[in-house]
């Protein structure tokens, strides 16, 4: 891994960032002492569990009319 002093990091920041995006992480040092590691952010892995509850419950055929009488009496419909 490449180590760059602070002064060089300031003057070459754009180039260093492009390299990090390409997978070339680097360390910024001050007086030869490593301070920070710079590397590209990676998008989090998306875990889609489509169908994981298949068959666990059923929706009644009259789902859209359930409680219709009670709703009408409450709201005068």
- Which architecture of the domain at 2-38 would the CATH scheme give at its second level? 3-Layer(aba) Sandwich
Separate helix tally: 3
Radius of gyration: 29 Å
Element order, helices and strands?
EHHEEH
Mind telling me the CATH class of the domain at 2-38? Answer: Alpha Beta
> How far from one another are the termini?
72 Å
- Strand order within the widest beta sheet: 1-2-3
Structural class: alpha+beta
Q: In total, how many beta strands?
A: 3
- The outline comes out as rod-shaped
CATH topology of the domain at 2-38: YefM-like fold
Sheet having the most strands: 3 strands, mixed
What is the CATH superfamily of the domain at 2-38? YefM-like domain
β content, as a range?
15-25%
**What average pLDDT do the residues reach?**
92
Low-pLDDT stretches are: none
Helix content: 25-40%
Outline the structure in words.
The protein has 77 residues and is of the alpha+beta class. It has a domain at 2-38: YefM-like domain (YefM-like fold), CATH 3.40.1620.10. Helix content is 30%, strand content 19%. Strand 2 and strand 3 (33-38) form a beta hairpin. The longest helix is centred in the first third of the chain and has 9 residues, at 13-21. It is rod-shaped, with a radius of gyration of 29 Å.
